[in-house]
């Protein structure tokens, strides 16, 4: 790994504006959330209402539009473009590539929501409007975590892969992907603003994902050892400890990330297989999953364009818009990482392969883990829904659900280890991408200095800890993503436009 030791001093290579402005912003936000938690959460809710409620349709349009563009790009002549030199072969096997792709983004959150999402929806009055819990509670999780969200990742991944491996660009930043449209303005105020917004969104996405799912790890520890520790304090301790684990893995580069990603996938699929075949709900899981998948496909465009203009339940604002925003802020890091590891694959292979591995793995997780507990609910073996309505504690309820499985303590350990491993690979890819943002240019194959990577590892963990100690509600955690995603949506459209323009020019040049 090249750590730039033979080049000009690190202080001249680093883009200090892109590095220090987000750093100072995070410090200020952390102080506010620590010392003014109620006021901070109130202001955040008001801002979220303005963007998510008033302009919620904006997120829906971008979501559906980018998904349709992904299909067009994959089946058109654009799909023939190799992300690298003509005739170059992929660096990673399909399994290794798919493992890193799946784990680099929201894999830990996928595990958390796979257990919990059906009862969150079942408690929402919108499900009663649609029909029965049996018919719809397991449909929305599949819809919210499959085609449109992965479309965000994959379209941008091929745009970044084209920029890095075909055009050989040395600036690994959002603004550089906009150069075909922005031209000279890429190096001016417009480009600087794009990069600042991207880094801020990256930090917001990290804060949301660590704040949402990490407390589950605390509840699992409490359940395993029969103790009741303070969730906020222990969560902060876990984040600090795992930060060191993630940092150690990151500093070993792509090789370390690849090994960790494979281990994650083996644990993940092992857990799914165990629940499916030994949980006692095999038939229900398969049949309900098959029906839910069919209902999602049949109603895809209706679900993708639902806005609830009379706000009878505000379901699209509370869930669909939030999820699109959540994935959009993660599009600052994950697609860069996917584009980087996709060298040697065609655009078509990257998009369709991503849908097969990424969407396929995600859907399997929601069908198996979600329908296991839904089956217990529907056949009267357990009443998880009533308990959730009474307590609102999704984390405690997930440990209760796992407690109904054979060899429950072992399953709890596997879930805990899998979440830690998922967080490690996600954190690694984020920190690596953020470190690249700190440089003016990076030569092909060159990696950021370890000191810069370490700085980002520490920075990325501060805001989640502040949000947890501020006891931010699920709604306020969602607000962080919704607010940050608003400007990112414009930039994503600009990147897709730039890719199509530049790729068209490239194909004409080949003829």
TrEMBL record:
This is Betaine/carnitine transporter, BCCT family. The keyword Plastid does not apply. Keywords: Cell membrane, Membrane, Transmembrane, Transmembrane helix, Transport. One of its GO terms (molecular function) is transmembrane transporter activity. PANTHER family: HIGH-AFFINITY CHOLINE TRANSPORT PROTEIN, HIGH-AFFINITY CHOLINE TRANSPORT PROTEIN-RELATED. The chain crosses the membrane at residues 16-36, 56-75, 95-115, 142-164, 193-213, 233-251, 263-286, 321-339, 351-374, 394-423, 452-470, 482-500. It is a multi-pass membrane protein. Coiled coil: none annotated. Belongs to the BCCT transporter (TC 2.A.15) family. It is found in: Cell membrane. One of its GO terms (cellular component) is plasma membrane.
